[in-house]
UniProtKB/TrEMBL annotation:
Identification of the protein by name: Mitochondrial ATP synthase epsilon chain domain-containing protein
Any Pfam family hit: ATP-synt_Eps
Family: Belongs to the eukaryotic ATPase epsilon family.
Species lineage: Eukaryota, Fungi, Dikarya, Ascomycota, Pezizomycotina
Organism in which the protein naturally occurs: Remersonia thermophila
CDD domains in alphabetical order: F1-ATPase_epsilon (cd12153)
Length: 72
């Protein structure tokens, strides 16, 4: 079993964490440029019974979920 699976991460989340670690290790000028490229502007909606729910920003939803998981 992969280490990221054992840690309870999805592959996409694992990639995001690894990319963030690499960006943070860069020197200041290169780090700022890489962080700008790494910003997400993805949206999603949950569908229930064939009806689309509220469209939400993925980055904001992930941040909110992280806060809820930390509180649990």
């Amino acid at each position: 079993m992969s280490a990221w699976k054992a840690a309870g991460l999805t592959y996409n989340r694992y990639l995001a964490v690894a990319a963030r670690a690499v960006r943070r290790s860069l020197k200041e000028e290169k780090r700022l440029a890489a962080e700008r490229r790494g910003q997400q502007d993805l949206r999603f909606a949950k569908w229930t019974n064939g009806k689309q729910g509220e469209v939400r920003n993925l980055a904001e939803a992930n941040a909110q979920q992280a806060v809820e998981n930390a509180a649990a």
